[in-house]
Structure formats: C-alpha cells, structure tokens
Amino acid sequence: MTLYDDIAYLKGxxxxxxKVLASEAGIHTYADMLDYLPFRYVDRSVISxxxxxxxxxxxxxxxxxLSNMQTVATGPHRERLTVDLFDGTGYFQLVWFxxxxxxxxxxKPNVEYLVMGKPAxxxxxxxxxxxxIEPFSSVDDGARHPLMPVYHTTDKMKQHGLGTxxxxxxxxxxxxxxxxxxxxxxxENLPDDILRHFHLLPRREAMLAIxxxxxxxxxxxxxxxxxxxxLFFLQLDYQYxxxxxxxxxxxxxxxxxxxxxxxxxxxxxxxxxGAQKRVIREIREDMRTGRQMNRxxxxxxxxxxxxxxxxxxxxxxxxxxxxxxxxxxxxxxTQHYLTFQRMLDGxxxxxxxxTGSLRPAAKKKLKQQLADGEIDLLIGTHALIEDNVAFxxxxxxxxxxxxxxxxxQRSKLWQKSAVxxxxxxxxxxxxxxxxxxxxxxxxxxxxxxxxxxxxHPVRTYHRLERNRPLVFSFLKQQIDAGRQVYIxxxxxxxxxxxxxxxxxxxxxxxxxxxxxxxxxTSMVHGRLTAExxxxxxxxxxxxxxxxxxxxxxxxxxxxxxxxxxMVIENAERFGLSQLHQLRGRxxxxxxxxxxxxxxxxxxxxxxxxxxxxxCSTTDGFQIAEADLRLRGPGDIQGLQQSGAxxxxxxxxxxxxxxxxxxxxxxxxxxxxxxxxxxxxxxxxHIQNSKNKIxxxxxx
Length: 699
Ligand code: ADP
Ligand code: MG
Description:
The longest helix has 33 residues, at 216-248. The chain is globular. The strands form four sheets. Strands 6-7-4-3-2-5-8 form a seven-stranded mixed beta sheet, with helices on both faces. Strands 12-13-11-14-15-10-16 form a seven-stranded parallel beta sheet, with helices on both faces. Strands 17-22-21-18-20-19 form a six-stranded parallel beta sheet, sandwiched between helices. It folds into five domains: 1-39 and 151-183, DNA polymerase, domain 1; 40-150, CATH 2.40.50.140; 186-248 and 655-699, no CATH class; 259-448, Rossmann fold; 459-617, P-loop containing nucleotide triphosphate hydrolases (Rossmann fold). The protein is an alpha/beta fold. The chain is built from 24 helices and 22 strands. Helix 7 crosses helix 8, helix 8 (216-248) crosses helix 24 and helix 9 (259-267) runs antiparallel to helix 11. It binds adenosine-5'-diphosphate (ADP) and magnesium ion. The site of magnesium ion has 4 residues, from helix 11. Residues 270, 272-273, 276, 299, 301-307, 428, 452, 559, 588 line the site of adenosine-5'-diphosphate (ADP).
C-alpha cells in the first residue's frame, strides 16, 4: 500500500463512488482522503431524546423505531419518501427526495435505528431531510470511538451513498489500513527537539487521531500538533525569506547624521514622544547596517507618523540621496507637501509635489530636476511610480497608508535604482498582533504606541434618528463656540447615484437646521474632480465653512485641527477600522473632541458590537482585535486561506499563543542553524514552498 493508491481500492469505496469522491471533493488517492479533514465530530455516546431537540441544534443523534412509511409522486420519475421516527418522547419525520428506492428497500419497521442529521421544523412538523440512518445494532464501535468525524458532503455525494456516516466509514477503513502498515507512510516533519519541547504528538499519530480520535483529549492533542505544524511552516517560510533577504540584498548605508536632520530636530516646537524617538532609532539602526530596510510603522491616527517619516527622509538627504513619499490620494499628497514645506522652511531642502493634475510643462521641468538631483524630497501619489519618473539617486521610499498600494505597485519602486531604496510603510490601520506576526513575519515592524501629550481621547456616543434634534443642537453649540464639524455618509458601492442622493438629502437637512448665511457648509464626494475637492477642503480648512458634509473620501489623513465633532451617519454600514479611521479625523487639537455614531433602531448583533466597541475604546489595536473577532467565520477563513495564509486548522483569532510559540521556535532554530544544514527536511520544505510566497522581495 502507498498513500498514492487510487481511493477506489479502499474497502467500501469502489469505482462508482470513487468517481463521485474525485469530482465532488477532489479525493483521488488515499493521501487526499487523509487530507480531507473532519470539520466536526459527533459524540455518539450522547444520544438525544427527540423531545429535547431544539430547532437551532446543528446536528443531533437520536435513536428510535420507524413507522408510517409513505411515498408521494412529485413529478415524472420523482418521489418524496417520508417515514416517522418515534423514540418514546417524540416524533421526527424523516424525508428523502432522492435515492428513495434504495432507502425504501432497506428500512424496516420495528428495528431500532440510530439517526443523525440536522433538525428543522417545517409546517409545524419536526423533520430531518436526508439523515444518516443505520440499524442501532450495527453501531458496534460506538464505545471505542465515541467521536464520529463529520466531513463536508454535497448533495451529489449524498445521492451516491456518500453521506456523513458513509464518509466516516471510509475514513475509518483508511485509518485501520494505515494503522497496520508501514509507519513511514506518514513520516514526521518536525524536528525531534521541537516535538519534545512542546510535547507534540508524532505526525502519524496526529493524522490518524484527527480522523478517528479515541477520546476528546487525544483529539485536542492531535489538533494542537497539526495547528502547530501549520503555523511552524508558515513562520519558517517567512522568517527564512526574511533572513535571506537581510543577508543577501544589499542596501544603502546611511551612517551619517547631518545638518538637515540636526537643524530640523532643533527647531521642532514640541518634544518627540518616547515612541517616536524609539521608532526613529529603529529606522536609523536599519539604514546604517548595509542591508535593505523593509519596515512597517504602525501608529494610531495622530500618533505623529508623518514627523517620523520626514526625519528619516532628512537622514537620506544628509547621506546624499533623494527620498520620496507616496500618499493614496491627491488631497493627502498635497497636504503632506504643504506640511513639509512649512516644517522645512529655511532649512535649504528642496521639496516638490508631483500629482496627476500637474500641467505637462511643469511636470517636464520637475522630472528634469529630479533626474539632476536638484530635488531632495518628492511627494506624490501613484503618479510617482510611473515608469518615466527617474530619480538621480532614490534612497528611501515612504509609503503612507500602505493598504491602498498593491504589492505590484511597490515592486515598481524597487526597480527604480540599482541598489534598492529603503522602504518604510506607514499605516494607521492597526493590524492585530497575531495577524501581523503571521502576515508580516518577514517584515520588520515598529509601533508608535503613544499619542503626543495633551490629547484627550475622543468621546464617542451612539445616537438614534429620534435623537437628531439634540445632536444638531450640540453641533450648533460647538460651531457657535468656534469649532467645525464633519458629517459623513457611507458610500453605497452598488450605486453612485443613490450615494449622491443620500448625500444631497443629508445636505438639505443639514442646511435647514443650519441656515445660510450664518452657517456655511461644504460638500465633498467622490464625483468631484481633484481640483473641486481640494477647493472645498481648503475652504473648510481655512474655517470659511463650518460643516463638512462628505462621503468617505475624507477618510484618510485629512487634517483640520479645529474640527471637533465627527458625525457618522448610518454608522452601522461601516466596518470597525473605517469607523476608527473616520474618528481619527477629530481630536487633533488640544480641545475635547466628539464622535457621534448615528444608526437606525434595530441593529444586527455584529453592528451592535461594533458600535459598542467604538464607544468603549479608542485603542486602535483593541479595535483591530475586535474587528477580527466580529468578522464572520467565512470572512476569516477567506483571509486565512487567501494564499498568503494557508491555514486550515489554526486560527489567527484564537491561537495567538501558538502563533507566538511557533514564531519563537523558528527564530531560535534559524539563529542556531541559519542555513538549515542540520535540518534537511525543513530545507526541502522551503524549496517546495518557495513559489508560494508572493511578496518575496518587497514588503
Ligand atoms: P499621523 O500621520 O500618525 O496620523 P501626524 O503625523 O499627522 O499623525 O500628526 C498629527 C499631529 O500631531 C500633527 O499636527 C503633528 O504636527 C502633531 N505632532 C506630531 N508629533 C507630535 C509630538 N511629539 N508632540 C506634539 N504634537 C505632535
Ligand atoms: Mg498620517
């Protein structure tokens, strides 16, 4: 026997079912079946009474006798078979639409059956459709294997006699065959010392037990071992890649701290926070080692990332290089440019702005100056990475709000100079710790986890439509005290028209409460041109308007310190990280700021939780953790299986301790044996999975 034998040869399968297994579940060989993991287990030692079954039970095991079998024709060659199951406490109607002949011939009255399936109530009748059913007397292994594995099946599989119970039987005969064959069929793939250190089951034992555990405890051990393995190899891939890149890819050496940096530092009007200093130190450390930096800086909105970026860019200039900063939108790029110009005034640094709306002649001139090295710092949007933008010597690239830039775009930057530039990615969208560790195992990570002093956390409130008069009178109070407010509407992706309608209705309502000329209102949305947007933003920024009614185009980076209230309409339609981003638009000055989440009355559970989270914390990391937890299992699974994170058992939400453990284990192992000379099996794994890593070179 080998694991690559055709599944048809396995006891209880045969050619007809083998065909269905292959087409429906991708199971061609023994190995495929072994890889087809149960998603649940039914404890057959727990048999429910029918009376105790609840409608929302997912899967129940009951035991009883059959009576009253009936067939009703539902079409030509189609019939519906029903039979009652009675266990002394209540009735279930068992229903079949397909394979009725097979069922009718086998089921007998007055025999005790074990029946498993998902209960449902239909027309006030308790039913189970296409249940798994077998004579109770044949359940002989129940005592030895109380936990029966449940595998995914499709309707077609069920119609071919491949229901839950049948699959469990097939896997059982595979497990039995494997138990009696060469142990090397399922070889170990983790190093001995790691198995010992973490008390892990051998791979073979775990693989057998995950299908047919002897006990709950053995199942837990098997799952732990296999989760560990998944996370271990993920970490190994990332950390090995990271190590290779660090030791092979040459980077510029920015060893010198010069006048630009020092003069700037001296004239900053406030002390840097401890976190800012620490992160700048980490970056300086990276940039002088001679290896290319790939660093992610996470910091909550308002934590002062821009300043950190600017200082690092000045270091590049001090070392004779150019630096650039890319922002996701023109508004933001322009804002950064103005900030930089103001902050660098009189320091002799040449800062320029390149955006898509620059006129051709000006653009041409700018490009020439860039190629000649006259420009020190260039700020821009995507336009910056167009192929025909050439730098004399690009030494550092800062990418603001990383999630808007794809890997592909970043890799273009990589090609912009012979010795690759250092790369700094800034993000205010906090990534939960576990996710960062798994996703960015090969990226260095810095965290600015401290806000500048004197900031009050934004106060957040949840209000309903009927509270609107109070909300608006509060806004009035704030505006009369000289402050400004945002009112944000969700983008309705399916329909730009509805979007605008929503926004215009909103604007009308706002203007009826806040009549002109006493109150001035701006409106910004995605359909305005960059110039129109900039014009409106500028009016608001200069205090000429009091209220900014907008869609989420203002989400990232807009900086108006005088704005003190953020009202988010239909807040239930926003995700947590978006709400957090929006809230970050206020509270940038020294005064108390407010965020008001307006929602409809009846909210779904997850919406309620999102709103509750927002009202109870301003800590971006806590919000990111909650976000991950609140996303449906499907969402997380999608993320986990999205190529980058191929996890089938481990969960980035629930298995954080395991993520840390494997991360440290791999780190220690690579420290002791960087070339994996003593671990040929691990080396082989890396060779095999090389093409799986998508972002090998660049963040
Ligand atoms: P981020 O990009 O992280 O959201 P910014 O860099 O835009 O934050 O900084 C927000 C505001 O805080 C800016 O007005 C900036 O000048 C100011 N700021 C930055 N660092 C400090 C500090 N250490 N002390 C006081 N204010 C600071
Ligand atoms: Mg910023």
